[in-house]
Each structure stands twice: as C-alpha cells, then as structure tokens.
C-alpha cells in the first residue's frame, strides 16, 4: 500500500464530513492522491477518472491536435457513466470522493479542439451531463507550472513525458478562470505548491481539519500559515 493510500486517523470533533466531495486541479497537482486519502480517512468510496483506461491518451500527448477529439469524447463518456453509476448506486446517501468535477470537462475541450470539433463536443456534452449530482464540497488544488512539471517528472508515467510547459500554463489559466466564477457548491481553494499530500501527514491533517468546518461559500487554504 502506498503512502497516499494509507489511513490517517482524523479527529472529527463532532463534525460530519461532506457526503460528496469533488477534488479538482490540473494534471500533476495531486487530486487523485488527495481523493484517495480522504476516502480512506472517512471510509468513503472513490469515484476516479481512470485516465489509464483511455486508449487515446498517449497519442494525445504525442500529437494533441490529431488525437484531441477522440481523447476528449472518451473522457466525457467515461465521466458521464461514472456519474450515472453514482446516482443509481446510492441516490439517497452518496458518500463519495471524486477526483473530477464534470462541469470542468469543457475546459480541456476549449483549449484542445478546433471550432467544428468543439461544436460536436458541445452537442454530446449537453446530452450526457443532465442531472449530475451537486457536490457538498469542491476542493480545487492550485500549483505553479514549475511544480506541476516537477511532479509529473517525479511520478514517471511514460505517456506524460511529452506534456510541455505551454500546455500546462494554458491549463492553469483555464482552471483559474473557471473557479474564479464557480458557485455551484462550497469551494475550498488550496495552495498545493507547498503541500505534500502524498507523504505529509501534518499538512493533510491541517487541511482536513479546515475543510470540516466549511458549509458554504468560498474558502482558501494555505499550508504555510500553519508553520
């Protein structure tokens, strides 16, 4: 079992965790790691993207324009199916942690698809994303492009080595814009550049303690404030 999957005892102090948590952020920021740790701490099920199941992803990283539409549509169908399964499995008490927010899916489409492809994507998206459940908390992990590049290099996934700085910068820009105006659920924005979610129990404990008090609105978590 990896450090990211290990359970950490969390003092809830009589507080109830959000029933449905969505963790978001650009590639390499640590969203899946955090989702797994939260699920372990709260005994929740995970709802994960499973990017390795996308047969077009490696080709996309090698030639984004050529493989963008197929890659995007595969992810869209995959995410929509997972949302549908979530609703059907436990519609009354969904206790889940997801490493994606389906409303952000068009972010990638806008920067990767040409005009005709994006129009086709939008038509499919509108048909598939009806009645997605609303998270009780969205956690948005932010990190600089330098940090993302370093973490992608450290995890050593061969297909990701073709990801370049310009692409990550564009991703960071569209994520920042999206969450600047996001009001679909309580939102926690985390400075993930300075936090070790894979191995840092202290950082993780502070983050969980902070998020358990969130019931509404927009909040910011900077781990450097905790010394």
TrEMBL record:
Name the Pfam families for this protein.
Answer: dNK
Alphabetical list of InterPro entries matching this protein: DCK/DGK, Deoxyribonucleoside_kinase, DNK_dom, P-loop_NTPase
* Residues that, per the record, bind ATP: 25-33, 151-155
A GO cellular component annotation here is: cytoplasm
The active site of this protein is located at 99
Gene Ontology MF annotations? ATP binding; deoxynucleoside kinase activity
In this protein, which residues make up the domain named Deoxynucleoside kinase? 21-209
* UniProt keywords, alphabetically: ATP-binding, Nucleotide-binding
PANTHER family assigned to the protein according to its UniProt record, in alphabetical order:
DEOXYGUANOSINE KINASE (PTHR10513:SF46), DEOXYNUCLEOSIDE KINASE (PTHR10513)
Name of the protein: Deoxynucleoside kinase domain-containing protein
Species assigned in the record: Parahalioglobus pacificus
């Amino acid at each position: 079992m990896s450090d990211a999957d290990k359970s950490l005892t969390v003092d809830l102090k009589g507080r109830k965790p959000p029933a449905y948590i969505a963790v978001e952020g650009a590639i390499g920021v640590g969203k899946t790691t955090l989702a797994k740790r939260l699920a372990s701490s709260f005994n929740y099920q995970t709802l994960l993207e499973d990017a390795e199941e996308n047969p077009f992803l490696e080709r996309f990283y090698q030639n984004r324009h050529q493989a963008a539409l197929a890659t995007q549509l595969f992810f869209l169908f995959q995410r929509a199916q997972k949302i549908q399964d979530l609703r059907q499995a436990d519609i009354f008490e969904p206790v889940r942690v997801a490493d994606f927010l389906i409303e952000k899916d068009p972010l990638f489409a806008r920067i990767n698809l040409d005009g005709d492809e994006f129009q086709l994507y939008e038509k499919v998206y509108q048909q598939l994303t009806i009645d997605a459940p609303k998270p009780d908390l969205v956690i948005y992990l932010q990190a600089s492009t330098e940090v993302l590049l370093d973490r992608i290099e450290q995890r050593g996934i061969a297909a990701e080595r073709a990801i370049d700085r310009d692409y990550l910068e564009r991703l960071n820009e569209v994520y920042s814009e999206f969450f600047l105006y996001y009001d679909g659920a309580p939102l926690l924005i985390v400075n993930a550049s300075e936090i070790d979610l894979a191995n840092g129990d202290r950082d993780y404990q502070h983050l969980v303690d902070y998020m358990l008090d969130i019931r509404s609105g927009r909040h910011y978590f900077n781990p450097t404030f905790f010394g």
